[in-house]
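ESCALATION

Customer reports they have been waiting on this structure for their group meeting. Please prioritize. Original submission:
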Amino acid sequence: MRKITAFELKDCDGCLGSDNARATIAFLRELPHLRQLFMELTDLPLVDCIVTSLVFSPTKDDNIAPQLRALAMRKLPTLFDGGSLVTVVASRRGINTRSTSKEYRSCSCLEEVQLGRPLSVSDSALASQWESLCNNGLKVTYE
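Update from on-call: job pushed to the front of the queue and completed.
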């Protein structure tokens, strides 16, 4: 059986909205081998829901994409506050990758983030954390 390791979530016609958040998150949850996620979404509530759902917790049995190593968000909604993305990245950096308790409880280290523009973070503590992540090995590129 083939395993999906890369997936592009793109809304070309403006038909993906926040009413699709649960179904989209449920679908992503079914991709435990996902290593690269590319998102081009314009609906702010949908982006917020998906990004928040990517926070990794070693105590959860249903983490989304525990093997995620690269996240691309080339098109960010205008009012997107990057604080939630900082939380996601921080939760997926420095994880003990040798943990093998369960497929969904072990996590690969998120290594790369691709953004369409520099991240805007309104919370000063999260902005400082973002700077620290960038200075300590997180590869961030802008396209």
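Sent to customer with the following note: The mean pLDDT is 88.
Escalation resolved.
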